[in-house]
């Protein structure tokens, strides 16, 4: 027969108890899980980014011969030492089997049930955080012949429920229990008093005590002390003295009573009275034994430390220490804890070392865990490792926190292979990974290893009820979207929606953007629809990406629908987005119908404004439907809204873009009479005519504008010069350039580069300059420009020439990268070696060579048959991500 020896031999009177607790638990498990998964530790970053300081690693970790298994093995052995195979078998049955099969399997273990065994099993299950199994075991034990639950076992299960914050479950159980009718009323009421006291309802417990006294029955010493402690914890100090008197009258007063009373004084901030009470107990003895105990001293030391009276606490501890009969380990433990709470980590470590050397003090696992966690946050990895080794050497049984902290340590130390092996071995020693460890592990894996391995861990985490915090999920989303692992990302998002986790707009935006980029528009649209059904408002960028995807895919109808929805959600589309949607609608069947349908819906939903009409005028103009633009313009006038200057310009541009030059000219003349020389209007007309390749009309308006003493914009000059040079009307182009001097403006880099480009191709430009000038009356600026054009038309013979050329250009206009590319082009025509050297000198001049910089040199080398040198430049070009231009491909 299988037996279990237990340390506890005492057993109080047995009790009846009602329906199984685990059946109540099933009602609350889903809501409790939701509460637990919503409570996340702040995501902790991987070792590479957790702190500005570089963590120092234990020296032996740097050994080249050391394998991951060498480091992991001693930790695994230590973690396995906490396991109790017999208890593990009990909990395996409880987890895997239900009903008759589970009860039969437990029965075959032939357990010798006792209070001490039940308490040990519940305590073991509590350390494993297996609440449901604890409740099932408690239920099963209570139904076994020859065993009845005691006050202690009830108190144990109530404490487990209380620490799990399942007060509702406990209260429902107690309400159900009150409805039961038992012969043993003393035990029945005592259990209720214990339950309500632990559940934080001492007022109900007092009512039950009153009912008991009315019936002539009373509590035992255990129940009285549970009630007294609850009264102190919840501040019912006016009743504490009454219950204390009852405890004394019944002869139940002991060390527990004293500890609770001292706790009460401390909670009332009456530290002097607490010390007076404690000192009185220090000189008292009962049966030759001191009354004062370690818990009592620890309670008062805790209050002093929280009040930052560490020196006063130290004096008291030394006095108690002289008695030689009071264990001070509890006081040392709270002292360390309070030092840590006060932010005195180094002080806590120093205190620990001192007490260890002098008194042989060894903290419990909880104190060690707290120290290790604080050191880990500060990247003090050497000290973390030393403490973990010290725990092992002191035979401290590790708990779940210890194992999770160790997992975090290996992550932060950059030893992800060890961390992953520890993680994969979690089932061997019952490791339940907590949210902090998952955050460490996932962040480290996503930062340093493969996304797939990190995703594997994350899926396991979600199955265990953990979901990453927003920061961690953002890192995950970035990695998955960057590597286009969109199926995995979709799984995570759907799980988040299912579990009602709130993700940031930026995460949805990144994901939907990635779906759009990979042509998975339908998936993005379905996800967007699901968000709408959950009343989640998508961000503006999300709408823009979806709309952009659908109009590029030719689905103007969906793009238009999303555009309208976007406005309903409070996001105002810009003109560019409206333009894109309208252009796509105008490419569909029956474009005018599609156009007017969108226009009518907009008019029916929103108050029309000038900006609103401008969007449609602009969109129709870009779609090549100038007549629709004109109709909208006229509709605006009929509605009583005066067209703005922007409206006029957009209407003018719609004519010019569609080559309706006569319409544009007539419209411009009409507007000129109304607007009284609005400079922007003239600017739009000149630039628009140049882009329509109508230099004669552009020049006519340009000179007319100058006669009216209006100064054209620099863009007008640039577009005119570019078009006239393209048409080889160099004389006229130079007249426009000269006009810049007359209005006091410098030559822009754009105009200067155009002149250099045409001077490279032929000498026509410099000939036009000589033929159109009276060299006697030229200004210094004009002379410099002529010299530049003339010089640039000839070959550059060496480095000295190029330096002079740069200086000459600088006197005329500012150099930019395009200018340097023009110099490269001139050099490649006669001095290819100098061109190669000049290409790499651009970095020293503060420029990053672009595609055309490399392409010019490559083409020059290929023309001369220098293929080896050309390939070298081509490789460098490829590393930069540049491809050749079409003319150069003919030589490759």
Automatic annotation (TrEMBL):
Keywords: Repeat
Superkingdom in the source lineage: Eukaryota
Stretches with biased composition (Low complexity): 47-56
PROSITE patterns: PPR (PS51375)
Annotated region described as Disordered, given as residue ranges: 35-56
InterPro entries: PPR_rpt, TPR-like_helical_dom_sf
Coiled-coil regions, chain positions: none
First and last residues of every PPR repeat: 185-219, 254-288, 364-398, 399-433, 539-573, 609-643, 678-712, 850-884
Any one Pfam family match given in the protein's UniProt record, by short name: PPR
Family: Belongs to the PPR family. P subfamily.
Record-linked PANTHER family: PENTATRICOPEPTIDE REPEAT-CONTAINING PROTEIN 3, MITOCHONDRIAL
Protein name: Pentatricopeptide repeat-containing protein
Organism phylogeny: Eukaryota, Viridiplantae, Streptophyta, Embryophyta, Tracheophyta
């Amino acid at each position: 027969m299988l037996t279990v020896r237990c340390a506890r031999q005492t057993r109080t009177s047995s009790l009846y108890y009602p329906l199984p607790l685990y059946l109540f638990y099933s009602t609350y498990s889903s809501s409790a899980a939701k509460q637990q998964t919503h409570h996340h530790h702040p995501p902790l970053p991987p070792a590479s980014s957790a702190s500005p300081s570089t963590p120092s690693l234990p020296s032996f970790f740097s050994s080249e011969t050391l394998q991951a298994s060498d480091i992991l093995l001693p930790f695994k052995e230590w973690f396995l030492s906490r396991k109790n195979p017999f208890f593990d078998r009990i909990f395996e049955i409880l987890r895997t089997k239900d009903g008759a099969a589970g009860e039969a399997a437990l029965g075959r273990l032939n357990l010798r049930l006792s209070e001490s065994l039940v308490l040990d099993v519940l305590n073991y299950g509590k350390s494993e955080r297996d609440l449901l199994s604890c409740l099932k075991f408690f239920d099963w034990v209570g139904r076994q012949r020859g065993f009845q639950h005691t006050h202690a076992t009830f108190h144990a299960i109530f404490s487990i429920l209380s620490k799990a914050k399942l007060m509702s479950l406990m209260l429902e159980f107690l309400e159900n229990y009150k409805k039961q009718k038992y012969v043993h009323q003393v035990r029945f009421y005592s259990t209720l008093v214990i339950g309500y006291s632990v559940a934080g309802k001492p007022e109900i417990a007092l009512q039950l005590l009153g009912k008991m006294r009315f019936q002539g029955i009373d509590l035992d010493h255990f129940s009285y002390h549970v009630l007294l402690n609850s009264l102190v914890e919840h501040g019912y100090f006016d009743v504490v003295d009454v219950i204390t008197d009852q405890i004394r009258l019944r002869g139940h007063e002991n060390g527990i009573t004293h500890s609770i009373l001292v706790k009460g004084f401390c909670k009332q901030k009456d530290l002097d009275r607490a010390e007076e009470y404690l000192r009185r107990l220090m000189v008292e003895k009962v049966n030759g034994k001191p009354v004062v105990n370690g818990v009592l001293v620890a309670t008062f030391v805790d209050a002093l430390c929280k009040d930052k009276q560490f020196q006063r606490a130290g004096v008291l501890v030394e006095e108690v220490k002289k008695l030689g009969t009071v264990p001070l380990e509890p006081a040392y433990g709270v002292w360390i804890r309070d030092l840590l709470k006060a932010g005195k980590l180094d002080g806590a470590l120093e205190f620990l070392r001192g007490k260890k050397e002098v008194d042989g003090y060894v903290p419990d696992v909880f104190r060690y865990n707290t120290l290790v966690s604080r050191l880990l946050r500060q990247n003090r990895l050497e000290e973390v490792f030393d403490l973990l080794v010290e725990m092992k050497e002191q035979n401290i049984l590790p708990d779940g926190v210890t194992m999770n902290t160790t997992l975090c340590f290996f992550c932060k130390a950059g030893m992800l292979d060890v961390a992953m092996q520890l993680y994969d071995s979690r089932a061997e020693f019952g490791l339940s990974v907590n949210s902090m460890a998952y955050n460490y592990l996932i962040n480290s894996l996503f930062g340093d290893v493969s996304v797939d391995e990190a995703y594997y861990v994350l899926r396991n985490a979600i199955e265990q009820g953990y979901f990453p915090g927003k920061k961690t999920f953002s890192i995950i989303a970035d990695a998955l979207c960057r590597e286009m692992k969109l199926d995995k990302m979709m799984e995570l998002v759907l799980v988040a929606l299912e579990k009602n986790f709130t993700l940031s707009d930026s995460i949805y935006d990144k994901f939907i953007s990635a779906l759009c980029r990979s042509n998975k528009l339908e998936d993005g649209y379905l996800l967007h629809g699901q968000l709408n059904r959950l009343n989640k408002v998508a961000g503006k960028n999300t709408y823009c990406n979806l709309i952009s995807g659908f109009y590029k895919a030719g689905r103007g109808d969906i793009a238009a629908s999303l555009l309208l929805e976007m406005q309903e959600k409070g996001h105002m589309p810009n003109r560019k987005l409206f333009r894109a949607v309208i252009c796509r609608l105008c490419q569909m069947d029956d474009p005018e119908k599609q156009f007017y349908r969108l226009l009518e819906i907009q008019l029916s939903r929103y108050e029309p404004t000038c900006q609103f009409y401008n969007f449609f005028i602009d969109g129709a103009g870009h779609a090549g439907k100038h007549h629709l633009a004109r109709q909208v313009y006229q509709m605006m006038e009929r509605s009583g809204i005066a067209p703005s200057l922007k409206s006029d310009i957009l209407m003018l541009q719609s004519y010019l873009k569609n080559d309706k030059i006569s319409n544009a000219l007539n419209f411009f003349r009409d507007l000129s009479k109304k607007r009284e020389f609005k400079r922007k209007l003239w600017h739009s007309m000149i630039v628009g005519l140049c882009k329509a390749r109508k230099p004669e009309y552009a020049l006519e308006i340009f000179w007319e504008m100058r006669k009216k003493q209006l100064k054209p914009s620099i863009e007008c000059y640039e577009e005119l010069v570019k078009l006239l040079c393209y048409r080889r009307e160099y004389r006229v182009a130079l007249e426009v350039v000269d006009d810049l001097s007359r209005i006091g403006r410098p030559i822009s880099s754009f105009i200067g580069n155009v002149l250099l480009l045409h001077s490279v191709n032929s000498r026509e430009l410099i000939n036009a300059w000589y033929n159109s000038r009276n060299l006697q009356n030229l200004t210094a600026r004009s002379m410099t420009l002529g010299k530049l054009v003339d010089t640039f038309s000839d070959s550059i013979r060496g480095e000295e020439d190029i330096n002079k050329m740069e200086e000459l250009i600088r006197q005329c206009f500012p150099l930019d990268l395009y200018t340097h590319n023009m110099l490269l082009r001139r050099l490649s025509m006669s001095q290819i070696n100098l061109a190669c050297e000049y290409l790499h000198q651009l970095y020293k001049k503060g420029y990053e060579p672009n595609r055309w910089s490399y392409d010019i040199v490559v083409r020059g080398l290929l023309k001369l048959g220098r293929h080896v040198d050309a390939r070298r430049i081509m490789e460098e070009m490829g590393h930069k991500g540049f491809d050749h231009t079409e003319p150069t491909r003919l030589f490759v």
